[in-house]
């Protein structure tokens, strides 16, 4: 409350965050003005509650073949709402109806790697990340699409040809490899002389 009647000697403070330490001061006021604040009260921690803030920036990708790498922004301590805080990771292949669930019992975690030989390279997965603490499971993030790790390109560039430019230079050219799930993203080419 902003102003309390002068005959009242206690007040309820509302809209505090769960599992946060607070200290309080009291100020007296009258028609002339506001006096000096009291000394601070002792530290008092509010009770724990189920976390309500979901991780943000859920993404991922990369990693090795047969891996699904999932990343997120960690939840700051003041929003964890209690002890026993951790993350719940849920994912499924795009189009599937069954979620796989994993738990990461680490406050600092911001990454989870799922390894399975049956994952095809560059497969899309629906992913969401949630939170929990000793009070229960909290909110899940919205769904993000994350691709599994790539394999090395399985197709060689075609149409390689060489043209002599000078006594010390040769120009080599080739047709680029088209992107697909079997070739992955081509980040560069290597030219070797035999």
From TrEMBL:
A GO MF term: cell-cell adhesion mediator activity
Database matches in CDD domains: FN3
Gene Ontology CC: axon; plasma membrane
One Pfam family matching this protein: fn3
Matches recorded under InterPro entries: FN3_dom, FN3_sf, Ig-like_fold
Keyword Cytoplasm: no
Annotated SUPFAM superfamilies: Fibronectin type III
Matches recorded under Gene3D superfamilies: Immunoglobulins
Domain Fibronectin type-III as annotated: residue spans: 1-49, 54-151
One BP term from GO: axon guidance
Keywords from the UniProt entry: Disulfide bond
Record's protein name: CNTN6 protein
Organism encoding this protein: Trogon melanurus
